[in-house]
Amino acid sequence: MEPTVVDIKDEWKQGAGLDEAGYAAWYAQSLQDPDGFWGEQGKRIDWIKPYTRVKNTSFEPGNISIKWYEDGTLNVSANCIDRHLEKRGNQTAIIWEGDDPADSRAITYRELYEEVCRMANLLKERGVKRGDRVTLYMPMIPEAAFAMLACSRVGAIHSVVFGGFSPDALAGRLEGAASSVLITADEGLRGGRKIPLKKNADRAVEIAGKAGQAVDTVIVVRRTGGDINVVEGRDVWWHEARLTVAAECPPEEMSAEDPLFILYTSGSTGKPKGVLHTTGGYLVYVSLTHQYVFDYRDGEVYWCSADVGWVTGHSYIVYGPLANGGTTLMFEGVPNYPDTSRFWQVVDKHKVSIFYTAPTAIRALMGAGDEPVLKTSRKSLRVLGSVGEPINPEAWNWYYRVVGQERCPVVDTWWQTETGGILISPLVGATKLKPGSATLPFFGVVPQLVDNEGKVLEGAADGNLCLTDSWPSQMRTIFGDHDRFEQTYFSTYPGKYFTGDGCRRDEDGYYWITGRVDDVINVSGHRMGTAEVESSLVAHPLVSEAAVVGYPHDIKGQGIYCYVTLMEGVEPTDELRKELVQHVRNDIGAIASPDKIQFSPGLPKTRSGKIMRRILRKIAEDDFGALGDTSTLADPGVVDDLIGNRQNRK
Ligand code: WTA
């Protein structure tokens, strides 16, 4: 039998001294007196003009407004760099580990300062001003962090687009953010394969241009030296330009509520939303969580294996660790290149103390057996973290026992792009662990479970996860669409922020996230709106209708299952199936690749024409004994056909 509770071991005691009772006391205070609690915590960062007002937030329908430290001013890059220079100028800020194990680089805080200032000066030279949007489409190289910090230095708003997205997806985000400056690289490198970033960027700029969004500057970092097209006047080589600008750039004084970044994320309907985060509250919260969740200690090497294209990379590769004067590791490669020992080799090579990754990677590596882990030492490891999707107890236990040798606590951190930072998680040394549970809320976080009618559920219960009050790193709005912000997050259960997640609370008050309850699926920890895949499929000339659902997948957590109705007279062939998969990949990117396509002459619809997704989900899950009531269908006969032709799962 696996343990259901893992007690706190003596050697897990927090460096900062926080224990179980301390957590409880701080948590209680954070709810009783948010102004007092956050007023005090706000001092962990440097303010140019100190705040006098701490919390000013409202979840009231029609008046959703979230402000923290609103009259304070600061600069985020100065907090992540300048203030550390005196004490840590020669300390490594960023360790970069390349795709090729022979490639690595260490960047000190002093060097980080100079590179960020140079990039900031280059942005200014190209006309970038406070409030302008700068889009990044970057591989996992230090220049991605330089560019983010450079934006924050000049007060520009960065919008990082994951390097795996297609030219179309990038173009949509350039348009959405009305961004005329793009920072990219010649090519990316992952698992020994080249990714044509600049080529994709050129195409995206062309598409955006046709849609009315001109991009007049493309800064290109040379990564592989591969052949690219250079557009005179528009394209700027970073390695050349950096020699022509000063390595000093005074930071802009920004208000706590000025935007820091936009990050596009999928929702259950429509196009991806530009989630907007601001400077002050965000930085306070990500630095505080980075310290207490992981028990980050001075001088340690901390490694989060996410990509900077996702929120985890923003908050826990760049901003949190650097605000804390930490050493953060950036990894360009993948877990199974050159072989499945790579993660642990990197841990040994750089003496990593804290390692933070996603369940999908853990499951994939677990599948490769214990040997690739056991042949490495891992003795530097002290803490293991998980994020992105529910971690099944089996994977949790493997991570704990085999990777961490039962020496390292596993912190399962639940949060979202929208929340900016970790909201539900154990704190190393202060929380007893339960494999598969994200455990307890962080300071200031008030989870609530409600049923589908919005009735509040008390005690042990299973329901929809809401948050009843604000926390400092909460998203402030959807860029350019405050109504959609209110509609998306505050209208399902008025007066509360609805997360879109299902959740169980047990007798001990521990939270167990059960997954999305909306039409968002989580594929390898990446959020995907089923509506996005559907609209890509129906844009194919041979497709008449499509419905997309998730199904359980051993490695990815969820796979993408598509029901496709073809145009009258079109033959359903394997060729066409492949073509449709490729079509979606081209449209959105490889992360949206359909796993299963079932050609279905009809979809189950109500008499009013609404597709009954519940039925499609059950069939995709191979759970067609439990279809429930199908009598309201316009044509109940389609269900038999769907069951008969389902695509067997692998
Ligand atoms: C899911 C990633 C269970 C959840 C930081 C959430 C999790 C969505 C966990 C957000 C976890 C994230 N346990 N589920 N520890 N962490 N999720 O915006 O469904 O990419 O709503 O942010 O991932 O994904 P996002």
How would you portray this structure in words?
- This protein is an alpha/beta fold.
- Among the domains are: 108-255, Rossmann fold (3-Layer(aba) Sandwich); 524-645, GMP Synthetase, Chain A, domain 3, CATH 3.30.300.30.
- Helix content is 30%, strand content 24%.
- The chain is built from 20 helices and 31 strands.
- The strands form 8 sheets. It has an 8-stranded mixed β-sheet, sandwiched between helices.
- Helix 1 crosses helix 2 and helix 13 (359-367) crosses helix 15 (393-403).
- It is globular.
- Bound molecules: 5'-O-[(S)-ethoxy(hydroxy)phosphoryl]adenosine (WTA).
- 5'-O-[(S)-ethoxy(hydroxy)phosphoryl]adenosine is lined by residues 265, 310-312, 387-390, 412-417, 438, 499-501, 513, 515-516, 522, 527.
Topology:
Layout: H1 20-32, H2 34-41, E1 55-60, E2 63-68, E3 73-74, H3 76-80, H4 85-88, E4 92-97, E5 104-108, H5 109-125, E6 133-137, H6 142-154, E7 157-160, H7 167-176, E8 181-185, E9 188-190, E10 193-195, H8 197-210, E11 217-221, E12 235-237, H9 238-241, E13 254-255, E14 259-265, E15 273-278, H10 280-294, E16 301-304, H11 311-323, E17 327-331, H12 342-350, E18 352-357, H13 359-367, H14 371-374, E19 383-387, H15 393-403, E20 410-413, E21 447-450, E22 456-457, E23 461-467, E24 477-478, H16 482-490, E25 497-505, E26 511-516, E27 520-523, E28 526-529, H17 530-538, E29 543-553, E30 557-566, H18 574-587, E31 596-599, H19 613-620, H20 637-644
Parallel strand pairs: 4-17, 6-7, 6-8, 7-14, 8-11, 11-12, 16-17, 16-18, 18-19, 19-20, 30-31
Antiparallel strand pairs: 1-2, 3-13, 4-5, 9-10, 14-15, 15-24, 21-22, 21-23, 23-25, 25-26, 27-28, 29-30
Helix pairs in contact: 1-2, 5-6, 7-8, 10-11, 13-15
5'-O-[(S)-ethoxy(hydroxy)phosphoryl]adenosine binds at residues 265, 310-312, 387-390, 412-417, 438, 499-501, 513, 515-516, 522, 527.
